Amino acid sequence: MALFDLPLDQLRGYRSASTEPGDFDAFWTKTLQEAREHDLDAVFAPVETHLRTVEVHDVTFAGYGGHPVKGWLTLPAGATAPLPTVVEYIGYGGGRGLPHTHLLWASAGFAHFVMDTRGQGSGWTAGDTADPVGSAPAYPGYMTRGIEDPETYYYRRVYTDAVRAVEAARSHPLTDAARTAVIGTSQGGGLALAAGGLVPDLAAVAPDVPFLCDFPRATTLTNRDPYREIGNYLKTHRGRTERVRHTLAYFDGVHFAARGRAPALFSAALEDQTCPPSTVFAAFNAWAGDDKHIEVYDFNDHEGGGPYQEAAKLAWLPSHV
């Protein structure tokens, strides 16, 4: 697939047409206050993995509604003092998988906390977290569950889980709360943006080819899932476009980016039809912090930078956490 979106020089100046709701901050303040009425109750249970260079803990913490959310905490073996910490979120349809698949960041000397994604984890890696909240009629997938009201939308629960995951990670004695970064690719990048806008004291944010950004453009530019789930829903439920757009505005990564001030390293791929580059640049250009950079992969689709971007983060992150 050749280039299909705006030229790079226009991407660098592109701004989203997404309109921020007037009560955006009040909505998220209320949502997080309600979540914090439940004890975090973070439990870290040691796991025997037969790995010798790391120690792994099976994590459970209370997310949205006090619902149990799973995760892994991986530490360099023998760590005795608080470590810089990376909280990672997972791409669409995936789950936390198995511990031995998460070795990179602990191998580099970080504490690494991977959050499972409620209701997902049956697409390409297995998950262990249910979503006990029901939904009105929805198109198959997750994008339209409860989509006609911000209060009931699926991602209200997931974004809240993402914030609580930072709190859970910081609660462990071998993590350094002041040196905590959030990262993720695709959906995970969108969750990193949400956390970056909702957790004011993060040390760094690194979203790769982030999903959940610039909904007005994404839902009309690409024909790929997951964004296409929204179009298919509206194709059936005629006349509900404005109601859906109103809901999505509360979850648009562009508006979280406008509140993010931590140092940030983004990545975009110019042939990415899943998360079109203009939608990624919309969030990058909105990022409020001055210390920000974006890696651009000219001839890549949604795989983005892959291991090259991992190498870029390995070089960048130690100077920020």
Would you write up a description of this structure?
By secondary structure, the chain is α/β, with parallel strands linked by helices. 31% of the residues lie in helices and 20% in strands. It has a nine-stranded mixed sheet, sandwiched between helices. Helix 5 links the parallel strand 6 and strand 7. Helix 2 (24-36) packs across helix 4, helix 4 (154-170) packs across helix 5 and helix 6 (215-221) packs across helix 7.
Name some characteristics of this structure:
alpha/beta, 11 helices, 321 residues, 9-stranded mixed beta sheet
Concise synopsis of the structure shown:
The chain has helices at residues 8-11, 24-36, 104-107, 154-170, 187-198, 215-221, 227-236, 241-249, 253-257, 277-286, 307-316; strands at residues 43-47, 54-62, 68-76, 83-89, 111-115, 175-185, 204-208, 264-269, 292-297.
